[in-house]
Amino acid sequence: MANLAFKLLPPRHAERWHAFKGDVSYAIALERFGPRLARRILWRVETTEKVVALSFDDGPHPHHTPEILNLLDEHQIPATFFLVGRHVRQHPVLARHIARGMHEIGNHTLSHRMLPFLRDERIVHEIRHTGEIIREVTGRTAPLFRPPMGLFSKRVVDLVEQCGCKVVIGDVYPRDPQRPGREKIYRRVINRVQPGSIIILHDGGNTRHVDRSQTVWAVRQIVRYLRQENYRFVTISNLASLNGKL
């Protein structure tokens, strides 16, 4: 009933409700307490060095992924892209473009399903088949895995590790898919970023209409601010190698 009521809302009210849920989720910020809850998951890296990792989920997307790539290339910044298998199949040229650059590719499942609600064999299929698609299309392996929507359980983590992957989430997430406003995305990141942070953003999506224009704007400002603060950008694997997390 709740989902039906949400669908019946006028578009403007539905967007506001979506943003409100994002505000609540950001305020609670479970990812900030992640290291205390699940040590097998990479949330951030403990370091005093001013270094951070940018990451992007749900791509590749035919419009917004090139925007993000152009911005990163302009500033010579590497990032980690957690790709959805079905999107890689739909946009192989974009996936190869990411792979040819300085960037790292991660696994974000085949169809972006909520893994804790799936059977073991389906979870394994979502992970392994996506890894196969990424390897066939780009020639690269994807040993890092981010569960869709950050949802996991001990069973999910066990299965991910059995597939030869490391679970990564992150500690700075501005809830950009909820489109809270480009300035709010920017402020949320710079207010919580610290040395060793993994920043979670989105270049793609899994709905019919995907608009990441707020994210693209915010990334440019985030890069400018962190560069002024003498931060260095690296991939998640390089960040994790600072203290032997991988």
Q: Count of DSSP E strands?
A: 7
State the fourth-level CATH superfamily.
Glycoside hydrolase/deacetylase
Largest sheet: 5 strands, parallel
CATH topology, what is it called? Answer: TIM Barrel
Mean pLDDT metric: 92
Query: Given the C-alpha coordinates, what overall shape results?
Result: globular
Give a description of the structure.
With 246 residues, the chain is α/β, with parallel strands linked by helices. The chain has a single domain (10-243), classed as TIM Barrel (Alpha-Beta Barrel), CATH 3.20.20. The chain has helices at 2-8, 11-28, 34-37, 64-75, 85-90, 92-100, 120-138, 154-162, 182-192, 213-228, 236-240, and strands at residues 51-59, 80-83, 104-107, 144-145, 166-167, 198-202, 232-233. The strands form two sheets. Strands 1, 2, 3, 6 and 7 form a five-stranded parallel sheet that branches. A two-stranded parallel sheet has the order 4-5. Helix 4 (64-75) links the parallel strand 1 (51-59) and strand 2. Helix 4 (64-75) runs parallel beside helix 10 (213-228), helix 7 (120-138) packs across helix 8 and helix 9 (182-192) packs parallel to helix 10. The longest helix has 19 residues, at 120-138. The chain is globular. The N and C termini lie far apart (44 Å).
